[in-house]
UniProtKB/TrEMBL annotation:
Its main location: membrane. Keywords: ATP-binding, Membrane, Nucleotide-binding, Transmembrane, Transmembrane helix, Transport. One of its GO terms (cellular component) is membrane. This is ABC transporter G family member 1. Residues 88-359 form the ABC transporter domain. PROSITE patterns: ABC_TRANSPORTER_1, ABC_TRANSPORTER_2. Coiled coil: none annotated.
Length: 700
């Protein structure tokens, strides 16, 4: 009897009937409904509706996913053994593996099909190629690496179209830890549902999905991580599934959706997925999970079970198949567990599974003949792919921008500016709830600035003060590239979330780069202001505070990549530009610290009214420094008569311009150095975008 689950509070009799002779699914729903009545929860209770007797007309199933002769091999690199007794002999190939010419076959001539509204489970022992088969069907393999064909309604699936009409749930729960369940699903709705859909309708879709997945009690709970308590493992798994079915995909691939869960959580995950598959309003789904609960698979829904050796049966046919094969299933034993154990036993036998495979081919051919006689159109779709998608859209399928035509389905659901707004809001929300991350950065900047300010406290304008200022600027500009460089660590934390979301075109990679750059600006502004205020006045700097603040901000902005130590040696502080060998001069110009360092020097020493060395101060740092002051004045008089100009103890002999010439800081103005530093930041972000574009395909 076909059953669907709908939300209808006006069907108490159906619920009562379900509770009289309940299945496990009905028991769980009855307990949930009673709890809602006791607590006063106004969420509509669940009821079991019999489609065959409710007057709801079931429609023909338009989608048929078929795959034939899928073969996939990987290259095996042989290890070089050590001589003598350290040398290990290569292991012999195990049953089902082919080790020839340095390759290992993972998939060998796999064929099968999945019909619309059907759950197809890929089951087998660990390492049998289940995830590889799922990846092959979902086009997550490198182009040309998989031989064979995957078709939908008899037509080859293009990669662009597959990304729009399908979703893939990975084994790992890749979620932002500080977003609530509702926020996580709402952001997914913003990404995957078209902008033409109103905000209220998106919220309704999210609320319906929360009820469907049994997440109502965890709606306002954060996802959590190792340091923050959040939802349970089963709820986290259901949220992961929810964000990928929010846009109502035609094809849904799930890789081990119940791994690591207890039996109750695994049952709820499977039941929620099956409900979305069989629900008459959203029935255009082909779900492809792996390793669901065996008892739930056999007892709850119709599905196909393809094994590594291309054995595919509906669960209802398992007893008849194995009985005909000469290994009847005992009444008290689980069907799928019996099948798994038998196949594992045959694989370890001398003849392997050859007899089972040959028997399966003849048995399947006989069954297909019977089905064609009884129902000639049962196993084929009489609609082309374009017609099937158009029909789905006409029934309310949430495919953006299609307007009833598959040729108008866009690559991305929303425009770039909308993606940017949603990504920025999500990043702000997640970061705002983890203030400790910003606190660590602020503490690092404050402590670094405090140390520099106290070490270089109130520098004077003597020759020693000049050298001390140069040392301060070199250290200050170098540390800005180390105290606040967290752009790459943040991306590494979000990397797999990014790869999951962009694998099926939830948003553009350019939107991600731009949003993260903009989101980081408020923090950079505050950190730059803190560092500038802590060091500028205590050190006794003379230039413009505003420019000093701007160059520090530009340095923080350009710190996506830290400067290389060899490049730091070529900034101009350790060795002047005119003293660098010609074959290393290019390193001077690619040093990130060069431009902020020269900018602050010019900001400090460009005022023509300020003098840094007067009269007898010119002897400081020379052997004449220990000479009495009176003798120094006589030396000045002798120099005056020799040079023809009067030099007294108050005569300015070294200005800021002289210092800049000594340091060979003359090729760019301070504003040019500022813009070059800003340009470095843009260049690194562009290179970051290219790396995402090329290196984040998320394919084998």
């Amino acid at each position: 009897m076909a059953r669907v689950v709908a939300e209808d509070s006006s069907l108490p009799e159906s619920r009562a009937a379900a509770c009289e002779s309940p299945t496990l699914a009905q028991l769980l729903k009855c307990v949930s409904d009673v709890r809602k009545e006791v607590t006063g929860d106004e969420t509509p209770v669940h009821s079991v509706v019999d489609v065959s007797s409710s007057g709801i007309e079931t429609r023909p199933l338009p989608f048929l996913l078929s795959f034939s002769h899928l073969t996939y091999s990987v290259r095996v690199t042989s290890k070089v053994g050590l001589p003598g007794f350290f040398c290990r002999r290569a292991a012999d190939p195990v049953s089902g593996e082919t080790l020839s010419s340095g390759t290992k076959t993972i998939l060998s001539d796999i064929s099968g099909e999945a019909r619309d509204g059907e759950i197809m489970a890929v089951m087998g022992a660990s390492g049998s190629g289940k995830s590889t088969l799922i990846d092959a069907l979902a086009n997550r393999m490198a182009k040309g690496s998989v031989k064979g064909s995957v078709k939908l309604n008899g037509e080859e699936l293009e990669s662009r179209l597959l990304k729009v009409i399908s979703a893939y749930v990975m084994q790992d729960d890749l979620l932002f830890p500080m977003l609530t369940v509702e926020e996580t699903l709402m952001f997914a709705a913003e990404f995957r549902l078209p902008r033409t859909l109103s905000k209220s309708k998106k919220k309704l879709r999210v609320q319906a999905l929360i009820d469907q997945l049994g997440l109502r009690n965890a709606t306002k709970t954060v996802i959590g991580d190792e340091g923050h308590r959040g939802v349970s493992g089963g709820e986290r798994r259901r949220v992961s599934i929810g964000i990928d079915i929010i846009h109502d995909p035609i094809l849904l691939f799930l890789d081990e959706p119940t791994s690591g869960l207890d039996s109750t959580s695994a049952y709820m995950v499977g039941e929620g997925t099956a409900e979305d598959c069989t629900k008459w309003k959203y029935s255009d789904h082909v779900h492809t999970p792996t390793q669901l609960s065996n008892s739930w698979i056999v007892g709850s829904h119709d599905l196909s079970v393809p094994w590594k050796d291309c054995l595919q049966w509906p669960p209802s046919n398992l007893p008849l198949f194995f009985s005909d094969f000469g290994h009847p299933i005992p009444d008290s034993e689980n069907r799928t567990e019996f099948a798994l154990d038998l196949i594992r036993e045959l694989e370890s036998s001398p003849g392997g599974t050859k007899n089972l495979v040959e028997f399966n081919k003849s048995w399947q051919a006989l069954e297909r003949g019977r089905n064609q006689i009884n129902s000639p159109a049962a196993n084929v779709s009489n609609l082309s792919l374009k017609e099937a998608i158009t029909a789905s859209i006409s029934r309310g399928k949430l495919v953006s921008g299609s307007n009833g035509s598959t040729s108008m389905i866009p690559t991305f659901t929303n425009p770039l500016w909308f993606e940017f707004a949603v990504l920025s809001k999500r990043s702000f929300t997640n970061s705002r709830r983890m203030p400790e991350l910003f606190g660590v950065r602020l503490a690092t900047v404050v402590v670094t600035g405090f140390i520099l300010a106290t070490v270089f406290w109130r520098l004077d304008r003597s020759p020693k003060g000049i050298q001390e200022r140069l040392g301060f600027f070199a250290f200050a500009m170098s540390t800005t590239f180390y105290t606040c460089a967290d752009a790459l660590p943040v991306f590494l934390q979000e990397r797999y979330i990014f790869m999951r979301e962009t694998a099926y075109n939830a948003y553009r990679r350019s939107s991600y780069v731009v949003s993260h750059s903009v989101v980081s600006l408020p923090a950079l502004l505050f950190l730059s202001l803190a560092f500038a205020a802590i060091t500028f006045w205590p050190v006794g700097l003379d230039g413009s505070f505003l420019f000093y603040f701007l160059i520090i901000l530009a340095s923080f902005w350009a710190e996506l990549l830290r400067d290389l130590p060899p490049a730091s040696c070529h900034t101009g502080f350790f060795i002047n530009r005119d003293r660098i060998p010609p074959y290393w001069i290019w390193f001077h110009y690619i040093s990130l610290v060069k431009y902020p360092y020269e900018a602050v020097l010019q900001n400090e020493y460009t005022d023509p009214t300020k003098c840094f060395v007067r009269g007898i101060q010119m002897f400081d740092g020379t052997p004449l420094a220990a000479v009495p002051t009176a003798l120094k004045l006589k030396i000045l008089e002798s120099m005056s008569s020799s040079l023809g100009m009067k030099i007294t103890s108050g005569t300015c002999v070294t200005t800021g311009a002289d210092i800049l010439k000594q340091q060979v800081v003359t090729d760019l103005s301070k504003w040019s150095c500022l813009w070059v530093t800003v340009a470095w930041g843009f260049l690194f972000r562009f290179l970051f975008y290219l790396s995402l574009l090329i290196g984040s395909k998320n394919k084998r």
